[in-house]
């Protein structure tokens, strides 16, 4: 008799598991609304908040320079002859280097 009760308990457990798989959970049906995840909107909000949404602030950084260069080469309809000058003089990517140790920084600085 105990074996029969154990089998019935197992069957009812398995049936409950099958039923729960076919119906979605109640908490999963609630959708969370997230803000716009685009990098442009996030960076625009951050730079506006910090008061650094100026050309020279953005252009002086590696990513800003690379985006400006890509814009001039691919998107802009007119040629930008100053781009070569900017690459030679103001390019933060060209002037970026990695120090191997703290003593190297003291010698350079």
Automatic annotation (TrEMBL):
Single annotated GO MF: ATP binding
Regions annotated as coiled coil: none
UniProt entry keywords in alphabetical sequence: ATP-binding, Kinase, Nucleotide-binding, Receptor, Serine/threonine-protein kinase, Transferase
InterPro entries associated with the record: RGS (IPR016137), RGS_sf (IPR036305)
Protein name, UniProt field: Beta-adrenergic-receptor kinase
SUPFAM superfamilies given in the database record: Regulator of G-protein signaling, RGS
Organism of origin: Mytilus galloprovincialis (Mediterranean mussel)
One BP term from GO: regulation of signal transduction
Residue ranges of every copy of the RGS domain listed in the record: 54-88
Listed EC numbers: 2.7.11.15
Highest rank taxon of the organism: Eukaryota
């Amino acid at each position: 008799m105990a074996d029969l009760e154990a089998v019935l308990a197992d069957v009812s457990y398995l049936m409950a598991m099958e039923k729960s798989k076919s119906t979605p959970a109640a908490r999963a049906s609630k959708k969370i609304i997230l803000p716009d995840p685009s990098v442009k909107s996030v960076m625009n909000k951050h730079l506006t908040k910090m008061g650094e949404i100026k050309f020279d602030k953005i252009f002086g950084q590696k990513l800003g320079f690379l985006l400006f260069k890509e814009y001039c080469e691919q998107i802009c309809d007119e040629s930008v002859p100053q781009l070569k000058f900017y690459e030679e003089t103001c390019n933060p990517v060209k002037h970026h280097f990695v120090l191997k140790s703290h003593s190297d920084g003291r010698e350079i600085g």
